[in-house]
Structures are given as structure tokens and as C-alpha cells.
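Summary for the steering committee. The consortium agreed at its last meeting that each partner would contribute one worked example illustrating the joint modelling workflow. Our contribution is presented below. We chose a case with several input lines so that the handling of multiple components could be demonstrated. No manual editing was applied between input and output; the record is shown as generated.
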Amino acid sequence: MTAPGRRSSTFTRLLRHGFTDPSAAERLLETPELSAVRSDPVLLEALGATADPDLALHGLVRLLEAQPTPTARRELFDTLIASKPLRDRLLGVLGASAALGDHLARHAGDWHALVTYEPRDLHRDVADFERGLADADDPVSLRVAYRRCLLSIAARDVCGTIGVVETAAELADLATATLRAALRIASAAAPEDAELCRLAVIAMGKCGGHELNYVSDVDVIFVAEPALAADGEPGDETKALRAATRLASHLMRICSETTVEGSIWPVDANLRPEGRNGPLVRTLSSHLAYYQRWAKTWEFQALLKARPVAGDADLGRRYVEALAPLVWQAAERENFVADVQRMRRRVVENIPADEVERELKLGPGGLRDVEFAVQLLQLVHGRADTSLRSGTTLDALKALAAGGYVGRADADQLAESYRFLRFVEHRIQLYRLRRTHLLPADEAGLRRLGRSLGLRADPVTELTRAWRRHTGVVRRLHEKLFYRPLLDAVAQLAPGEARLSPEAARERLVALGYADPAAALRHLEALASGVTRRAAIQRTLLPVLLGWFADSADPDAGLLNFRKVSDALGKTPWYLRLLRDEGAAAENLARVLSAGRLAPDLLMRAPEAVALLGDGTGDGAGLAPRGRAQLEQEVLAAVGRAESAEQGVTAARGVRRRELFRTAAADIIGSYGTETRPAEADQGALVDRVGAAVSDLTAATLAGTLRAVVREVWGDTLPTRFAIIGMGRFGGHELGYGSDADVLFVHEPREGVDEQEAGQVANRVVAEMRRLLQAPSADPPLLIDADLRPEGKSGPLVRTLTSYAAYYRRWSLVWEAQALLRAEPVAGDEDLGRRFVELIDPLRYPRGGLGNDAVREIRRLKARMEAERLPRGADPKLHTKLGPGGLSDVEWTVQLLQLRHAAEVPGLRTTRTRTALAAAAAAGLVAEDEAAILDEAWVLATRVRNAVMLVRGRASDTFPTEPRDLAAVGRYLGYGPGHVGDMLDAYRRTARRARSVVEDLFYGS
Amino acid sequence: MDKQQEFVLRTLEERDIRFVRLWFTDVLGFLKSVAVAPAELEQAFDEGIGFDGSAIEGFARVYESDMIAKPDPSTFQILPWRAEAPGTARMFCDILMPDGSPSFADPRYVLKRALARTSDLGFTFYTHPEIEFFLLKDRPLDGTRPTPADNSGYFDHTPQAIGMDFRRQAITMLESMGISVEFSHHEGAPGQQEIDLRYADALSTADNIMTFRLVMKQVALEQGLHATFMPKPFSEYPGSGMHSHLSLFEGDRNAFYESGAEYQLSKVGRSFIAGLLRHAGEISAVTNQWVNSYKRIWGGTERTAGAGGEAPSYICWGHNNRSALVRVPMYKPGKTGSARVEVRSLDSGANPYLAYAVLLAAGLKGIEEGYELPPGAEDDVWALSDAERRALGIEPLPQNLGEALTLMESSDLVAETLGEHVFDFFLRNKRQEWEEYRSEVTAFELRKHLPVM
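What follows is the complete predicted structure of the assembly.
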């Protein structure tokens, strides 16, 4: 023993050999079993070469202690010292697997399995393993024999005798042998059952694909037929199936039950027809009938890996032969691509957020990505090309590359990463023989894992780096696998390499959702061929863009629009740099270009706005809406720089177009979500954002136009004070992309100015503003609507404040008071605007509420409007504005509440519908659940209106009838392909519920 | 092209079929048919057949009228009454929107959606209908009383009975179309027949009922008779019900069965019944969709009780109680698979797709929400006084179509099951039927009032 404070030389030696707890190791080496060799450099070196020297040493001591006799201990000890192969293998296993260490300690003689080292050991096959399991005749002895076989696989795996692919194949062979043994045991237990039926076990999943892990569920399907009776006729089918079911469930129990020796692995039969609810065993014809009639796309994908492994070989072969043709027809099924994409998304969404970062299999860039991409391509191209029909991932990938379906370099890289990830997975599982796909979270676990992969210098850092690199490769490649070959097919760059044939390219484009593959190929050719830097960058960008387009309702339009933008901007140096270097920009652009007509139209008029889609570091860049003050400042500055009113307004309208694009793009991206950010879940927030942005923008544009007009004719001061009051949706901050601006104009002659003259001036200002805002130009016009003014269309366009006061004092009708609820000054003289509001407040928030007559009047007006204003022929239930449960229903209900109660409930004094509704609920005027129903209906109707405008580029009060447009509206609202019916159903339901609340609140009480 | 489609095309060749009738059902439950030549069928399998949906009750408005009928090859069947070559065959269709997504106006899709929800919960829904109908000698269209085809009674078996002959031929024809018949007999009223179909999944049953009605009318015509599925053609005789036995399976296991439980009825079964009862009022307009349906429910059940034609007027359940709305049939020992509940309100004039969809939805709601089953009724509920029924908490079914519609209007369950489109159309159409009926001056009024006023 060494004295405290002084370290022995052994201590540093141990440290150098990779022990993390040298003191414990020293104590272990002092034990009687090992003391003789405690400073033997050969042993220490061998221990130091293992993944976890502490673990290996600990295991060795236990194994020695477990030897039953001193002779046995001697034998082990001598072999260990004398035979390097045994030493490496035994210590290697002990250092990599705590579970196998336990096994060895419990079965002290099993280390002999590691001694033989013959060339034929290099690769063992099913027959070898069957021999190894031959003596097992009950679940317990089967477990022991299984572990002994596993020991030999693990030993050769950790010593590098076999690679990751061979290991996986051998594990599948061992599983096959185990299933056969389990069936043998089950049959022996019930010979009368075995006599009645022929039972075949079909392996699926990784076992079927001949690429099993150390520990994973073994997926199987059972198929059975009645055995031939003595007379040569098949026996009773029901009885046979019952017997087969008993055998099959016994087989499953034999493998998965936990006994004193633990369990082997769970046998999972849930891939069978109807899943866990279906019968465990079916006849061949019943399997066939199911797959022909009921099976879903993923079930065919699973069948790719079906392989008969145990039981009746002839029946197994017939099963595979009968079902294989169905697999290859799967790609022709309706919704095949949509199904497949949905399956993939669901997998990613289901991983708990805190594990995504450590998830080897299901995380982004994980094993599942590789397997999934390979299987999808097999299903798409495997019908025409039989060479692609392998159940093993890497073999299939190799065949895909050989046939030109994926690029050779991509395939090589992907294969390398796949092997690495599988390697990591094997070693993680080997440690405790647990079914896990998570990287260890602790330092020690990561260290052991890194060392077991051969990373010795700084295992944790190196492991993390390698893992990042490989998931990165997979993540980047798995989409490109689909699309890059399409570009290679048109770009004709690398002679000699196998390329996708034109038919295969078309097939793939159709499978990915392109309606006009010929046009798509033309665009691709135009964008990607040539040797310019631009073509080169586009070749690398397009594979990813094509994937995003394919995800939209109109991939063809997305690609066409991209071509247009690229034709316009391709020579601008920052454009391609932006798309290539700024992660989000390319995805954002793809979404915006394929989500409808409005945003691309706005963009085509001034393509530089693409810059807004970047990460948003520069001034004015990014998608975040800009505030009212900021917008006004920019517009006024632009007007100030202009030489004439016309130029000034043109500049203001240019700003408006750019900001409309920014708003539309942000809306689309928020609604669709991106790879890094999920779609905005709060529909109300999306609606409010658009409403606020477009209303602010309109106000700023009006302010700028007013300034431009005044300055041109009157210089700095107008002879009369002039203000613009926003009304309707404008006043409520709820404007949509295509809305007109409802306004009132008010003025007040300055001191000493003749009232008539002032009136003329004000009228001229209005006329000039309207003319300039509607003048034909590349920018969208802004229409001003002043029909809500006193006396409507027949009244004067502009009034003085006094005139408004006089009018409202004498004539005001209840509908005018209602309209004034939405009045808010938006531009011009602030003081005048404030005084206008003071003037109308007593009207719109009448003290004591509304009289019965007025309430009756409002109800009658609304009822008449419902009867008269709905257009003929349209389905009123889908009319978002005037239909039952539409905008007008909700707004009138809220406004009636405001007119009646705003005098005593200050919260109701707002121009905004949703705010007023919330205030009414808070004040107990509306039940919370009723308010929620109304709010949901209002938000949904507004979302639909925004969607229609974005998709069609024209406003409409109802859903589009053209299927593609309707589908695009659906995508914006979050409904996947084939679900427009659900969208309409949901709209009708929301509106129906709202209508019933409206009938109660508006017409009822 | 899948196997089934290939099979259909091959059969057309081999059997020299010259026309294929593509069948679908409108929202009210009437069979519609488009005939196509075999040459067009291959395209019909791929893309469907376009048609003007506005011509079909409840499908579409004029401005969105393009719809597609897509044949379901698994329903292919040669029509036996045109036996001589060249023959005719039929297939049921799914109705699609122009973009290929299913149309919410298609009753078949309504049922399919309800079944999809069932399978999400891990169940399969089976039904077994007992269909009653009348054979008439004539079919006057001016409102006068028709003449029943015979004067036999319940289970009567007389030599040369018209009904016997009819049933034999009808059953042969049904069997030749792959529809298995369980049982058939003469019902309680003159001319009234009952034929029970073998249990099957609900979609097949609904398809079979549509076929069944057509076959019965066809066979009747061939014998110079008329078959009618009107719920109550005669005031003095019982009406035609379509008692339906319902069961849910979880895989191979009957989910209604639990050995040792009361009546061997599982928790799932009890909640299912509770759902049927709690929602019986609001689904009534669908299960009993005609003005005439309520004459069957309220038209003198006391008089016809015991004669085999009982219609349930009150919302209650009973074990083997034929006066209850839901009956739990006597359990047959050893037949765990046959545990089921019988709903007795449904009549022969219902649209089977919609009716099974709402019954299923009501039952599932009971299961999902874990409704408690109220105590069963042991007495003959017709014989109880109003006060006794009130004391037992037994409510009546709606008195007429108008009441039923009012209940349905505020039912989220029915709206969600039918889909908003069908829900809306159905209410509008039925309101109108009710209003037309209300404004009609009837023979009853003329008979009662004219002589004395």
C-alpha cells in the first residue's frame, strides 16, 4: 500500500493506460487472482486498448472469481497470458459491454467460446448459429445459448474482425436461428398443434433486411395454412389457424419473456394486417386480400423488407412471391407521395424535444432519414427496375447509385455516414444490451463510446464532432437524393456517369407532385445548364428548392416563378450569395414563390425585395413588420426628396408595394412554418399582424400623399386644417391585402380664410390625392372610399368640423353612430383629428345606451341586409363577409354591444373588433365560451379572405372554385393535400356555431 | 391498375357485359345510376366519370357543380335480372371533388368517415338489418289507399301464397348478387314481408340495403306486384321498420361481450347503448327521416303491439323487451361473437349510410364519454301511464318530423357526423317537407270536419 500523498509509479502507469479511477484499479490488481501479473505490461496494454479499461478490469476480476475450481481459474489465467487473441477478445468484450461481463461472470465456462479462432470464424452463418443453439430446449437454456453466440459476434466486432455491415448481418442470422429454435421449442411443447398446421415466420424490419442491431424488437409476421391430413386433403382451416396462433404466441413468449436469464428481445408482430387489433396469424389468401384492399402506404413500405426466416419454408416462399408484386404497385396508389411525406414528418414531430439532439435514429439527419429516403426511391423506381429490390439499406443504395437514380458521390457519402451511425448505435446498445438510440448524456458514457469507436486522443470531443459531421451529411443529402439526379439529368455535365433517363426523371417529378413534368424539366435545364458561376450555384440550390416547391399546393408555379426571379436578378451579385449563404433565405423564397399569385406579383415588379427574405441584419431587412412611425418617416422623407407631387406619390406607392410584399411574405412563412420554426399556432396573432401592418402602411401612404399634394400647390401650409379619419376595417386596424381604405375627410378653415374658399381647397386636395393614388403604374393602386360620410354618396365629400357637428346634432341615424365606432384619425392635422373624435364620442358611446327603437332599427337593417345583399348563386354558408357566422355577423354583434354599453364600460371604446369582444367578455356582457366562438369565426373568416387574396391576387368573399387555388388556400390554413373537404367542413362548422351565438346575442336579448 | 380492377375488366370481356351501371346514393337515400360502356371503364377507374352534381339532391349548387363518380371495383356485381347476354353489371361509386379529394356531400363518405373514426378507436362496426316492406297489388299515385298483395299474417305459410313465391325468387336473386339472407318470413300485416340480411361491416350492409331495395322492386314487378319501403302505408297495420343489430369488434373479439357481466354485456356495450339512448332524439330526423316515419312510431302502437310490428315510441332499453328502443337480445351460450344490441327505431325509408353513421356516432360518444347506462325497462312501456314513464325517466321520441328537426338543429354530434354540408342540406330539405305537409288539408280533416261544419 502506498502512503497517502504519494503516488506510486503504478498509479501514473494506469492513468497512462486510460484508467479513469487508478486507485480502484490498483486495488483490483492487488487481489490474489491478479497480483501475479499486476505489473505485466502485456496485460496492462491489453486492458488499455479496450473501450473502458476500468470496466474491463472489473469484469476480468469477477470472471476469475467466478471460476468454480482453482484448476479452472488456472486454465483461464494461463490462456489469458499466453494467447493474445483470447486476451484481446475477452478484454475487448469486457471493456465494451457490462451486460456481457455479467453473463460471463454467471456462466463461468462460456469464455471458452472466445478461444477458437479459425478462419471459418470470420463470418458465421445461420447454420453455425443453429448448431450453437441446438441443445437449448427451454426458454432459459435458449437465453444462455443465445448470449454465448452473441458473445462471439461481439468479440469479433470489438476486435475489428468483422465490420459494421457483417455484424448487422450476423445479428440477423443469429435472430433467424433463435426464431427457429423458439419455434422448435414451441412445437415440441404442443405436438398436436404442430401437426395441424404449417406455420411460416416472416421477418420484417431490420431482421428482414438482414441488418439487425444488437438489441431491437424483431419484427415478424406469421402466416399459416392447414396441414395436409392423412387423406391428402387440407384439414380444417379454423382449427389450423387456432393451432398456429397458439404456436406463434408461444414462440413470441419464448423470446420476449423475462426469466432468470433475462429476455432475448421482444418479438413484435404489430406490422401485421390491422396491427395489434388484427389476428396474429392469417392464411396466405387472407394476407393477400388485406393488402389488396385495405393496406396503407406505410404497410407496403414495410413489406419491402419481408423475408421468410423460420417454419415452413415453402409457405414462406409463397408468401413473399405473392406479396412482392403488390409492393411494387404501391407507388401508383393515390396519395402515395403525400402519405410518405406525412409519415416522415410525423416521425420527427414525435420525438421529445429534449432528446432530439441525442437521437441517433429518429432525429434530423439520423438513421431513419437514410432508410426512409432509400425506401421511397425504391418504391418509386423499383417497379420498372428490378435491380433495386433489395431489402438491405446499403445494398439498395448501391443499386440506386449504379442505376443513376442517385448521384454516385452522394450515395458514397451517405453510405459512409450510415455506416458510422450504425456503428455508434451498435456500440451504445452493446454496453448494457438495452434497446436505445440515444447518445449517452454523461461524460463517462461518451468517453467509453468514443474509445470503442477507436477515438483515443480526445474521445468525447472527437465523437461529438464526427457525429455532427455525419448527421449533417445525412440531413443535407436526404432531400438532395430525390432532386439532384434530376438536375444531373438535364445539366449533362459529368459524362460517363449513369444518369436518370428522361422517363425516370418525369416519373419522379410526377411522384413529387409536379403536374407538368415536361415544363419543369425545361425550367431546370434553363436554370442549371452551362458552366457559369450562376448555373453552378443554382445547381446546388435547386435540389433543395425543388423539395420545398413540392411541399406546396402548386410546385409548377413555384419553379416557374423562381426561374423568373432568377432571370431578373441572376446577374446581381448579392442575389445568389443571399440564397446560398443565408440559411433561411432560400427556404423563405421557395415558400413565397409557391404559395399563390399575390406575393410573386409584388416581387416581380421589383425583384430586389428578395433581400427582405434574408436573415434580417441590415437596415430595413428581415420580415419583421415595421412600425407606423418608421414607415411614415420613410414615406415623408421620400416625398421630401421628390421634385413633384407625382414623383412623391410614386415613391410612396413604391414603399407601399415593398412593405406589402414584406407583410405577405411574413404571413406566408408564418402560416407554413419553416424547417427551423414551426407554423404559428395562434391564428389570431397572424391575422392581427397582417391587419396592423397593412393599416399602418395605408396610413403612412396617405400621409405621404397628402404632404406631396399640399406642397405642390400650397407650399408648407394649407389655408385650411385638414385631417383624414379612417373608418371601417381601416379605422379598426384590420385591413386585408386587397381592401379599399374607408375614410372621412374633415377640415377647418384657418383664421381669416373664407369658408367657401377653404372648402374648395379641401376638395381639391382630396381629388388630387385620389387621382395620384389610382394613377396607372407598376405599383398596386390604393382605392379611397368615402361612402360612409354623412348623406352617403349624395353628401359633400369634405365637411368642416362645424358642419359635421351640425349634421350629427340634427340628423344622425343609428347606422351612422354604428359606423363611427370604427372612426380613428389616420393622417393630417392631429389636433383636428382629436377634436373630431371628441365630437363623435357622445354619438358612438351614447350615455344610457340605446333606446329600444334604435336597437330594433339596427336589427332590422341587419336582417334586411342578410336577405338582400348576398349575391345570388353563391353558397351563403361559405360567404365570409355576409354569410351566417361571417365577419358581418360578428362585427354587428360586437358593435351593438358597444353602442349599448360603451358609456359605462371603457374597455369597449375601441375601434378594433377583437379588442372590443374581449372587453365585452371581461365585463361579463358575453359568456367566455360564446366570445371564444365569435372570435374564432372572425379570425377564420379573415384568414380565409387573406388566403384568397394571397392565392389569387384578387379579393373575394368566398372560397375559390378552382381546385388548385382551393388547395393552396388549404395549405395556407394548415390543411394538407387531399383535405380541402375538411377545411370547408371546418369553416362551415365554425360559422354555424358563431351564427347560433349571433342569433342569441344580436337578435335575441 | 390493381388486381380488382383487372378482374372487373376481364369479367366484362368474358361475360359479354355491354353496360356497367355506376351507382351512388343521394343525400335522401335514393339510388342514382350512370351507365357507361366497358370501354370507358378503364378511364373511370383512373379518373372517375364527371357529372353535374347540381342535378343530384343535396350534392352541389349550380356554381360548383362539377363532380366525379369513381367506381369501387370491390363492389362489382353482374345484375341477375338481365340474365340473357348481353348483360349489365353494377358498381358502387365514391363521389369526389374535381381535385380528387372525397366529396363531403357523398353519403357513402359520411359513413366511411364515421367508420374511420371507429377504427381509430380500435373497433370494427358490424350491422345486421331486418328489412320490412309491403307487397302491393297496385300503386295508386293520387293518394287513394293501395291494396295489399295478400291477406296473410305473421309467419303464415299458406299454399300458393304470393309472398312465398316472391320471397323464394327474391332470395335467389339476392344470393346470386352475393348478398346473404339470414331469414325471411311473412310479417304481421297483409302483404308485409321481412327479409333479414346476414351481418356484415356497416359499409357493405348499407350498399347491400341499396341493392336490396332495387331487387325487391324488380322481382315484384316481374310478378305484377309493387314493393314499397314507405314506413307506414296503412293506418291500421304496423309500419315497416328496419330493426338493426349492431356490434363492435376489437380485432377478433366482440367488444360487447363480457362473460359473467349482466346479460354478458361489457362496459363498452353498456356505454354504447347509453350513447344511443342519450342521443336518440337528435338523431331521430336521420333514422326516421320522413313525415310518414312518425306515423309508424306513433300510429297506434298499442293496437299492433304483440303482432310483431311494434315500433318503439319511448327512449329506453330492455333485455329482450320488444317495446324498448334498444333491445339486448337473449345471449346464446357459447356464441361470444354474437353479442349485439338491436336498435328498433330505424325504418325502411332511411338512408342507410347516414342512419348507420349517426347511430354509430351516438354509440361511440357513449363509449368515449363513459356514459352510465340507466336501468333497463322491464315492463311493456306502452302499457305504462305517462306519469309512470315520467317517474322512470323514460322520454318519448319526437312526435313528428318538425320536432325531430328542431332537436337535430342544435346537435353538434349530428353536424359533425354528417359533415356540415350534408347537415345543412338535410335540414333545409326536411324543413321544406315538413312545411309542405303542415299546409296540406288531409283526408282526415275532410272526413271529420266537412260533415259537421
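Residues 3-105 of chain B form a domain with the Ubiquitin-like (UB roll) fold (CATH 3.10.20.70). Residues 304-309 of chain B have pLDDT under 50 and may be disordered.
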